[in-house]
Specification:
Shape: globular
Strand order of the largest sheet: 3-2-1-4-5
Radius of gyration: 18 Å
Largest sheet: 5 strands, antiparallel
Number of strands: 5
Distance between the termini: 24 Å
């Protein structure tokens, strides 16, 4: 499974390119990592993007524009520790709360 990153547009260039800045959320506040990346925004069809827009990006391509609220929610979810999502979990095995592992099937 591939996950897209959430980043904020800081510059828009001609030729369908944009510069985005990656961010994180801690205690409800957005923190910018200072890590910038040039992405290909032409993949968004006729959707003009502007500085301040939030995008889902993957492998250097802008996939979707999302609202700031949705971006902050996505960043907050990514900041959570998956082992702490179920407070009733009495199983001390950290692998027990992880996603199922892939198992090879016998022919």
């Amino acid at each position: 499974m591939c996950l897209g990153a959430v980043a904020k547009v800081v510059e828009v260039h001609r030729g369908g390119r944009a510069v985005v800045e990656h961010a994180s959320v801690e205690n409800g506040a957005v923190h910018y990592a200072g890590r910038r990346e040039e992405v290909l925004a032409i993949t968004m069809a006729d959707d003009d993007i502007e500085p301040g827009d939030w995008l889902v990006i993957h492998s250097g391509f802008a996939l979707e524009r999302i609202s700031e609220a949705r971006a902050i929610d996505a960043l907050a979810i990514r900041a959570t520790n998956p082992d702490n999502t179920n407070s009733n979990n009495t199983n001390p095995d950290p692998a027990a709360s992880a996603a199922p592992h892939h198992q090879e099937m016998a022919p």
